[in-house]
Amino acid sequence: MASNRKVLMLPGDGIGPEVVGQVKRVMDWMEKRGLAGFEVTEDLVGGAAYDVHGTPLADSTLEAAMASDAVLLGAVGGPKWDALPFEAKPERGLLRLRKEMELFANLRPALVFDALVDASTLKPEIVRGLDIMIVRELTGGIYFGEPRGIEDLGWGERKGINTQVYTTTEIRRVARVAFDLALKRGGRVCSCEKANVMESGVLWREEVQKVHDDEYPEIELSHMYADNAAMQLVRDPKQFDVIVTDNLFGDILSDEAAMLTGSLGMLPSASLGAEDEDGRRRAMYEPVHGSAPDIAGKDMANPLATLLSFSMMLRYSFAMGDEADLLDGAIRKVLDGGMRTADIMQKGKARVSTTVMGDALLDELDRRAA
Ligand code: IPM
Ligand code: MG
Fold first, then answer.
1. Least crowded by CB within 10 Å, which of 9, 83, 102, 171?
2. Which entry of 43, 251, 328, 343 is annotated as an active-site residue?
3. Among residues 118, 131, 180, 255, which one is catalytic?
């Protein structure tokens, strides 16, 4: 099938290749069924790239990412590369991709599947039906702020420095992404910062409020200190619709939200840049979980977060909402049928491998497309 959908696969380290492998099977299935064509290339990132190129992201890989319509990334990192200097660490490859591609809006939906209500560590009534969207600012804040570094003060004393910094433009553009999403969802946005102790938080609050008042008055906007938000997420998570927050708070709150759904192995994400004149936007899709070195290569990992990330790619990069619904529906059905990887295993269910989970999904897709 002819195709203009250029997808760059970056499986990365640990369980990355295994979970990305299941997405490749679904892509092949879609091609065979004549549902979509993809022009797929594959490259290295993270520790895997370091081992070959001596850097966690080669310039040629970054160029390929820039030229693609969408990137699918597995995971980066592992104990093998822990002792490397900061700039060579696998995580730097991921951060450089985000920064250079200007993927400033990171969408992390936390959705509780009915079949997994009991897999959560929280009471069923707290999480049943949960559907929240965390929008994390991804290219600014303390992750990238200058000055940064470790200074030797000379008398056996050292100083570690990072800088939290946000500009009006950075805050406004991510706020707009959150408001636009809320328009298509429950119409509510909660913005989180620490305006009680940080000037950057004061600016964040003022700018989000301004974008709201000028452009999105129909949205219900609230503000919350990030520590309170962390507490509210476990107390009563269903009070939230869309949460918008900075890079560091978003990192933390999204791990917390992920656990509400039963497992980090269930959470997908999309990282989006600004739209260009042709309505095209750079994008990278990745599971929220890490490389899980302890179970890497054992065919044990949960591939669903990566498959759900691919579904987000279909939705956000290729306007293929029907195909995304098809895939989401098939995933739901496989879970309803009792298939569980180790991380979401429950009593009375069938514990399956990564590959068998993929098999079951393809069977279900076959049934649906028949
Ligand atoms: C995430 C991860 C990354 C981050 C790491 C791997 C650099 O925790 O995507 O949430 O801190 O952003
Ligand atoms: Mg994280």
1. 83
2. 251
3. 255
User: How many whole angstroms from its chain centre is CA 275?
Assistant: 19
DSSP characters for 180-210? HHHHHTTSEEEEEE-TTT-HHHHHHHHHHHH
- What residues does each domain of the chain span? 1-110+264-370, 131-260
**Domains 1-110+264-370 and 131-260 are alike in CATH topology:** yes
CATH among 3.40.718.10, 2.60.120.10, 3.30.1540.10, 3.40.50.2300 for 1-110+264-370:
3.40.718.10
What distance in angstroms lies between residue 251's CA and the mean position of ligand 1's atoms? 7
For 274, the 3-state DSSP assignment is strand
For 229-269, how does the pLDDT look when each residue is reduced to its tens digit (9 = 90+)? 999 999 999 999 999 999 999 999 998 998 899 888 899 99
| Catalytic status, residue 194 | yes
Q: Rounded to whole angstroms, how far apart are CA atoms 249 and 236?
A: 18
What distance in angstroms lies between residue 247's CA and the mean position of ligand 2's atoms? 10
**Catalytic residue flag (residue 143):** yes
Tell how far the Cα of 255 is from the centroid of ligand 2, in angstroms: 6
pLDDT in tens, 132-181: 999 999 999 999 999 999 999 999 999 999 999 999 999 999 999 999 99
